[in-house]
Amino acid sequence: MNTIRPRRNRKNSAIRQMVEETQLGVQHLIYPIFLKDGKGIKEEVASLPNNFRWSLDQLLPELEACLKLGISTIDIFPAVDDALKDQMASYSWASDNFYLRAISTIKKEFPELVVMTDVAMDPYSSDGHDGLVQNGQILNDETLPILAKMTIAQAQAGADIIGPSDMMDGRVGYLRSALDDNGFTDVSIMSYTAKYASAFYGPFRDALNSAPKSGDKKTYQMNPANKREALLEAQLDFEEGADMLMVKPALCYLDVISLLKENFPVPITAYNVSGECAMVYAAAQNGWLDYERAVGEMLLSMRRAGADAILTYFAKDFAQFVRS
Ligand code: PBG
Fold it and tell me: What is the CATH number of the domain that holds 293?
């Protein structure tokens, strides 16, 4: 028998905790939230149980509860009425936009809450694409000024972090300049750097009714087969001034998280996307696995791979688990 017995370091809970390599706490989590115009609305997303489309009046007390649980950062996504969508996503910077108004109210009510916003055309676009569509093509450079208008409107409303999720080339640098030129040097950019064309966004697109009207997102989102290409995306976003680099989805891309962590000196974040969470909810509802343990293990795997922060629909449940 070998004299080295790894089991000695697992022999009781005190020793196990002493030698634990990875920490996971609510401070590492960002909570994505769906917002809808109106009053008195709290609609559960059918394909994402436990998650809701909120109207602002309903959301405010919920945010207070989240803050009490230690959740310090949220990422808000708008569910926009179809009638307000157009080819240019012009509602995204409209002065009467409910999303922008909600951001300012939230920042007024809870100045300490870090608010992240999403920059991409899809929730506002009649084409359901992240960029401008012309003759079936997604135009890159023509999309950038639209994203910049959206970004400035969100910064004016009080966003702390903007999250460009569109995957257009050159948008991080473009948006950084737009922010700086407008005096928003303190607004951070968490760029969706390695965002893959994934099957796991389904419930999110249900929540926002934002699926592409035609075609798919493969000319701008990355091919799931590619890893070295993530280094190129990361290098560009880093050089263009991204404060944090995101990998999305998380679970099928833990190797990419770890690759970026080793190669870039900025925080790496992971988006534990809607489909990944839906799988766990569905299995747990069937009694096929233990929800609390599965959630903890999933999130831990992302931290172990190197994620500094994780966007996850489990944020509130996790915060409740660690409290109890
Ligand atoms: C789109 C966007 C998507 C998500 C965040 N921003 C979906 C998409 O690219 O179609 C997905 C998040 C999730 O599935 O939880 N700009």
Answer: 3.20.20.70
Query: Does residue 89 have its Cβ closer than 6 Å to ligand 1?
Result: no
Atom of ligand 1 nearest to the CA of 203: 14
DSSP run (H or E) holding 103: helix 98-109
Q: Is the CB of 168 under 6 A from ligand 1?
A: no
How many separate helices (H) and strands (E) can be counted in the chain?
11, 12
Closest residue by Cα to residue 265 from 234, 224, 292:
234
Prediction pTM value: 0.97
Q: Which of 36, 195, 217, 261 is catalytic?
A: 195
Look up residue 160 and give its two tokens: 């702390």
Q: Is 195 a catalytic residue?
A: yes
- For residue 1, being part of any structural domain is answered with no
Residue 7 in any domain: the answer is no
Q: In total, how many domains does the chain have?
A: 1
Residue 207 domain-assigned (yes or no) = yes
Note whether 255 and 279 are within 8 A (CB). no
| 323 three-state secondary structure | helix
Alpha carbons 245 and 67: distance in angstroms, whole number: 25
CA-nearest residue, atom 2 of ligand 1? 165
Q: Does 117 sit in the ligand 1 pocket, CB within 6 Å?
A: no
Residue 214 is assigned to a structural domain of this protein: yes
Alpha-carbon distance 6 to 15, whole Å? 12
Mean pLDDT by 10 residues, the chain (324 residues): 94 97 98 98 96 98 98 98 97 97 98 98 96 96 98 98 98 98 98 98 94 94 98 98 98 98 98 98 97 98 98 98 90
CA of 220 to the centre of ligand 1 (A): 13
Q: Which domain holds residue 135?
A: 23-323
Ligand 1 midpoint to CA 203 (Å): 9
Cα–ligand 1 centroid distance for 205 (angstroms): 7
